[in-house]
Amino acid sequence: MFDDPLLWARLQFALTAGIHYTFVALTLGMAALILVSQFSAVLRGDAARLAAVRFWGGLYVVNYGMGVLSGLVMELQLALNWNGLNEVFGHVVSAPLAVETVAAFFAESTFLGLWIFGWDRMNRWLHLACFGVVTLTAYLSAFWVLVSNGFLKNPVGFEMRGGVAVLTDPVALVTNPSALLAFGHVATSTLLVGGLVTAGVSAYHLRRGSDPEGMFRRGVRRGVLAASVALLPTAAAGGAQYPLLFDPPASSGTTLDAAEIERIEAAGSGLVRVLAETGNAVMALVWTVFFLVLPLALLAWPLRGLDRWRWLQWLMPVLPVLALLAGVGGWVYRELNRQPWTVRHHLTTAQAVTELSPGLALLSFVLFTGVFVVLAGITGWLLVRFARRGPAGGPLAPAPPPDSGAAVPVHSY
Amino acid sequence: MELVAVVLLVGLLAGYSVLAGCDIGLGMLSPYVARTPEERRRVVSAAAPYFLGSEVWLVAAVGVTAGLFPQIEGEVVAGQWPLFVLLLAGWLVRDAGLWLRGRVAAAAWHAVWDTAVVAGSWAVALAWGLVLAALLGGGALPLLFTPLCVAAVALLFLLRGAAFGAERLVPVAGRTGAESAEAAARATRVLARAGLVVLPVAAAAAWLDGGVRAGAPALAVAAAVTAVLAVTAGVSGPRWSRPTSAAAMAALPVLAAVGGQVSAAVADPRSLVLVAVATAPMVPVLAVGQVWLYRMVRRPAPESGFFA
User: Which helix (H) or strand (E) holds A29?
Assistant: First the structure.
């Protein structure tokens, strides 16, 4: 079993995608909240609120770095390990990914650079606009990736010509319900994540009695509000996708006939089903916890419980961890449900993988998964460290005034 | 339509070579130009704003290759699997170094990530040399040409990095520490002269080696152009090395496109339309962002910042 290159390629993709998504969820959710905070700070010209933006922004940028590193591997991994998919469906699946890199990621990274280096050097409205572009392109990026992913689940808008899929209807590809609903679910659930991270970190500091200029009092409220707003839409956009899981795609039967499809699906492994259902259960369970806790937090708000109730302040920092777990669970469910297909009813996962020797597949797995685990561990540790340290000494904290210790007299006569 | 797609891809790769040559080359050179902890910090501080803006060109190029040239992707990327794994590993290690170095104030932490930046920069440059050799050699790595091609590409990266360092490592007015900038400025001359020797030899090897198709006269032309550019950089030192090294780096993807033995079968028209329609509205935003970012970081690197 372990000398099967397909297994290593699949495990590598699953683990790297799971790690990648965890950081992506944080990036998306926090971007929206930071944008609102910075808008409010700039509008009021309030230095205290801007200091808070620097704190949350510092966490955002540390997290973004890991998102980029893992995203690079995701993109090249598709080319290196999944050549069979590219040969047959490259024209269709990769076109949205091309748009993602050029139209979204390119702008996101450039404007994040401007935002990082533009503190104190740029007009504050322009600086805010830079983060506006970062937020917008982060969501745009998620959209195009999900267009590609949604096609795998519900292939639309293409024709098979000589064994190669050709895009015939770009509009159908972009308006694929499998992509749009997934985007709605990702956009709302990451807002839930962002809200819970903001509320959790703020509650941690409030419990320890640290609240410089009221930033964590504002943070816990903003976080609880964002998470509560996102709670029901998350479930709605998620639940609306269940029918799509089991209905055959409209293009079913154009590549393989019904008997072949049935034979391939019958050969699926039972372990995959168990794992998929576990992912689904984790996701549903975590959502239920939020459904019980968030109304309590909303109730505590007018009673000033968010600032005073210790048990709530102990509970809140646990919630973002649960939310990230649920995100991974959701992806496990979505992707494993597609098995044994890579493109449902058209291309099996075994056909999609590059023909690698077992040694090379294992090398690739050890190298990239190993590096990922180490880097994700370090980034996670840094995030917790900076979150606990508070606004002073954060990654984006203002530079200390130039030290005079090392200065040498300019003139020596 | 096919020409537009090819020009877009070569343009993205040329942008990457020119811009990333700066920060990758400086990363490769940093053991030479930065000897003290303070100098090493300034090297990372100088390179960091560039890598954020430069690697996106390569990401976009990979995306465009996958979306518009699925055959190239299959042939080149999957066909040269070990080379691209080396490239990706170097890229990952180098970026990790740049992102993580400034996060903890401890000498051992800095040493680990400085090493990662240097090793990753070398791995990326050498991997590009190997990829170019494989492209020109038609999939195989020619015995004689390959080491010379790798050496030539590494030299051009180093020259670009030295030219960049000679400007960007100059201390902010009133501060000490010009040694790194001077070391980089001295290196431009040495590297340009070394390039002057290696590039013609590599071009000659391409003719001698049976593996490289001699029917690509473009190869010799491009090599000659690169050599001439190297001369101007070598004669006048760091002063002209910035634009000339940029032109030399930009010649590399052009060389690969002209002399490379890949069939540029472009994706079908509808895929092209989708990519064109979806990206066109963003192009002005991208242009403004890139120009703005590079204008902002044109000045000598500040004393401290996010990355170092």
Answer: helix A5-44
| Residue B306 falls inside a structural domain | no
How many domains is chain A built from? 1
What DSSP line would sit under B72-116, residue for residue? HIIIIIIHTHHHHHHHHHHHHHHHHHHHHGGGS--HHHHHHHHHH
> pTM for the complete prediction?
0.88
Instruction: Tell me if chain A has a CB within 8 Å of the CB of B306.
Output: yes
Specify the CATH number for the domain of residue B153: 1.20.1630.10
Residue A404, in any domain of the structure: no
Tell me the residue range of the domain where B48 lies.
Answer: 2-296
For A154-269, where are the alpha helices, taking DSSP H only? 170-174, 177-207, 215-239, 242-246, 258-266
pLDDT digits (tens, 9 = 90+) for B268-305: 777 788 888 888 888 888 888 888 888 887 766 665 67
The answer to whether the CB of B56 falls within 8 A of the CB of A106 is: yes
Of A103, A109, A170, the CB nearest to B273: A170
Residue A263 lies in a domain: no
pLDDT tens digits for range A158-176? 888 877 888 888 888 889 8
Report CB contact under 8 Å: B96, A69.
yes
Residue A250 belongs to some domain of the structure: no
**Identity of the residue in A133, A360, A371 whose CB atom sits nearest the CB atom of B92:** A371
